[in-house]
Amino acid sequence: MVENKTFTRGKFVGARVPRVEDDRFLTGSARFIADVKVAGMKHVAFVRSPYAHARVVSVDVSQALALAGVAAVVTGEDLADVGRLVDAMQIEGLSKTPQPVLAVDRVRFVGEAVAAVVAEDRYVAEDAADLVVVEYEPLGAVTDAVAGMAADAPVLFEELGTNVLYRRSRAHGDTDSAFAAADRVFEGRFHTNRFMAAPMETRGAIATFETGPDRLHIQTSSQTPHLLRMALAGVLGMPEQRIRVSTPAVGGGFGQKIATSPEEVVVAALARRLGCPVKWVEDRRENLIAGSHAKEQIISLELAVTGEGRILGMRAQLIGDGGGYSFNTSSILVEPQVAAQSMPGVYDIANYDYEVIGVVTNKTPVASFRGIGWTAGHSARELLFDEVARDLGLDPAEFRRLNMIAPGSFPHRTCTDMLYDSGSYTESLADALEMVDYRALRERQRELRAQGRYIGIGISPYNELTGFGTDSASQAGFPFPSHDNAMVTVEPTGKVTVAVGFHSHGQGHETTFAQVAADGLGVAIEDVAVVFGDTSTSPFGMGTYASRSAIIGGGTVSLAAARVREKVLAAAGRLLEVSPEDLEIVDGRVSVAGDPDAGVSFAEVAGAAYFDPRVRGEGEDVYLSATMFYDPPATYSNGTIIAVVEVDPETTEITIERIVASEDCGTVINPMIVEGQVHGAIAQGIGGALLEHLAYDEQGQPLATTYMDYLIPTTMEVPRIDVNHLESPSPFSIGGIKGIGEGGLISAPAAVTCAVLDALAPWEPRLRTLPVTPDRIAEICRQE
Amino acid sequence: MTSSKELVEVVMTVNQTEVTRTVEPRLTLADFIRDELDLTGTKLGCEHGVCGACTVLLEGEPVRSCCTLAVQAAGGTVQTVEELCRLPRGARLRESFKKHHALQCGFCTPGFLVTSYELLEDRDELTVEEARRELSGNICRCTGYQGIVAAVVEASGAD
């Protein structure tokens, strides 16, 4: 057993513990938002704009209201008492675009809600929504961020007079000298695809309002219950302690369920206005056009390189296509700002200048999605790296290794002021190369090429900023102070309740936090229950996003468990009449160290602490409960993903043969859950490389509005994925834990894309617009 | 309810219980199962037959309940995850899914279980390739499928 004051690694932390929550989902008894019924509830359907950009001339709700079963139809003007949603980031020079929860005067993307219908069931609500007559006066649409920057472009927010909400340059080192000294300069302009979280469960909410004094209860599919409560309090003008946000089972979020959605606010406002519970569950089309999009950026990169392949300097311009509003909670800057900061990645680059530009366009607003910012920046950089290596005649693995931050140089401060706590960059690259037997694979590639078959290898080493707290946010370029809490309580029977502010929507928190608490207290994992997702029972927490739960949750739970263990030992010491320092807790028994027979059960100590006055010290807090906070320093996980693909130049068919991932997230709490995160993120990355793109036509009509045209990878596209674990515990975080959620989606799109282009090397391919679609491959292979 | 709607009586056997409801002809089988019978294990992920989360067995065959009307299932026998997970083959799948970490958020899971349950009806010793092909009609956004495929392959050979 490894132990320090705050973190104990016993029989559970580090073990492949099966998930304790699985049976609920496997029996169909888990309750998601669509499964929840509240007595007397009515159903909401939204009337959504068919135009990308238009003036709303009039909204006639009379026919809809006349339909039997319709309780109410409200427009933006009807909700004048509801505040507008605005992003919370306080960044100098960033213009704000407050968003009405139902459009007033103007719509700025197809799918923006203009009115809401409340009816006895969803079928009638949709019928009535079709009867709402909205007169629009179409305006010119901005469908491309670069076009939107032009002086004569239609302007989305007349009061701002421009579509450019933010523009700022930063210089690090002496980039001009680096470029002057370079043997070669490479450049490329990359347009990364717009794709989205697309959780299997769409968004949804049920609101219940009680008067005297007012109480609002909103049940919603959210990753961030406490943040939603704050936002609702603001826009509804209600004190936050009168609002309860609770989340039933949440069917995936991947970032889309972080921001407060306009629809959640409308549902809450309708419950208050109508005095009856109202429910809204989004359909897939709504999710695809009105749920947030992600990742689209236009990134221009320049690299100054020596003839031997040493990178001397880098310049970048990053243009974020933010869609119709700088979305609340996460601003228009999340993509380009984070990409700009993280562009050096795992490489030792001392001279680097960047310019970040945030532009609104008449497309669906962009917000968080797994690997936010990092995915697009990483894809652009790694694609250019392969072009450089090919041009210089260097092996792509060797080119990367040559420029990597060396082992033994951690902590490493990047030129952009990110402080990499620890890592295994070159080790992870070597490990992944060994996993695929790289030399043999290159040999096979040559042999097959001679036979007219084209396999390719894509090498994608990455790191990711994890444990999004105050320090991490600042390093990413977002001043967003935060802290999180956990409450650990030993109940009178000796059972343990762990309450956290982290939501679980597939990450397995009920298991990982129970592992940490069980080791921290010396009890069985079966004796621990984890409570989350309800502002009335969970201590304040920022929620689950940005790979923060393992490190911050693990930290808060271990801190609280350690404090409670002290209380248990104090009580047991009085019961046994020995000094608490001489006691230990093993397998639910408190005893003198080395003499398990001379002890009492954990349950007996708990019972005594609650009900036996003799164990109470004078003036001492005997309640076996502690709430502890934690706001960790930034930590950085890392890894390398390698994809092996075969491309048929005739049919353009891509077959992913295999993918390997060498990952390092510091101390592993549960390797099985870590592998699940890696597999899942890589699968989304495969989608991002090959399939997923939210295309628009020139008028701003979204062209991917069903799962028939927004393609999610299936069992046929996702190959076997092998995962190796390296462990570089963070010297900064409690227990050495780092996060793990994003790396696969940061790095897999580049791994797969680079592999495809490597396969097509004989055609000297140059691909800078993602994803890699069949027509783009055909275009490459048509070249002489 | 309003009186102007056309309503029809539907009788069917769901999870071994005969049920009778008077419903609109346009009511989907998924909404019938979920809202009329409160059997919410069946999930709606896309409502146009692509994602497979709403899969149930009708006369022993997997169907997309989002694209099937309740009236089409009238007189028939429907089985949902709530029943299947309690039968021996379902219990075997359940254990195998847990062992192989074949679920994360759990939303697509009932659809995968129902599809797999029927898949194992008259098949044993599935290969990985067969399992991948047969499961390709169901979408999971969390797991990357490896655990699901491993779970179904193992459960297929457990007899």
From TrEMBL, chain A:
Residue ranges occupied by any Aldehyde oxidase/xanthine dehydrogenase a/b hammerhead domain in the UniProt entry: 27-140
Top-level taxon in the UniProt lineage: Bacteria
Molecular function GO labels: caffeine oxidase activity; iron ion binding
Keywords on record: Molybdenum, Oxidoreductase
Keyword set includes Transmembrane: no
EC number: 1.17.5.2
InterPro entries: Ald_Oxase/Xan_DH_a/b, Ald_Oxase/Xan_DH_a/b_sf, Ald_Oxase/xanthine_DH-like, AldOxase/xan_DH_MoCoBD1, AldOxase/xan_DH_MoCoBD2, AldOxase/xan_DH_Mopterin-bd_sf
Keyword DNA-binding: no
UniProt cross-references to PANTHER family, sorted A to Z: ALDEHYDE OXIDASE 1-RELATED (PTHR11908:SF132), XANTHINE DEHYDROGENASE (PTHR11908)
Protein name, per record: Caffeine dehydrogenase subunit alpha
Organism: Capillimicrobium parvum
Gene label: cdhA_3
Automatic annotation (TrEMBL), chain B:
MF term (GO), any: 2 iron, 2 sulfur cluster binding
Pathway stated in the Swiss-Prot or TrEMBL entry: Alkaloid degradation; nicotine degradation
Gene3D superfamilies: 3.10.20.30, [2Fe-2S]-binding domain
InterPro entries attached to this UniProt entry: 2Fe-2S-bd, 2Fe-2S-bd_dom_sf, 2Fe-2S_ferredoxin-like_sf, 2Fe-2S_ferredoxin-type, 2Fe2S_fd_BS, Beta-grasp_dom_sf, Diverse_Oxidoreductases
Protein name: 6-hydroxypseudooxynicotine dehydrogenase complex subunit beta
2Fe-2S ferredoxin-type domain segment(s): 8-84
PANTHER family named in the record: OXIDOREDUCTASE WITH IRON-SULFUR SUBUNIT, XANTHINE DEHYDROGENASE IRON-SULFUR-BINDING SUBUNIT XDHC-RELATED
Pfam families the UniProt entry points to: Fer2, Fer2_2
The species this protein was found in: Capillimicrobium parvum
Keywords: 2Fe-2S, Iron, Iron-sulfur, Metal-binding, Oxidoreductase
EC number, as in UniProt: 1.5.99.14
Enzyme class: oxidoreductase
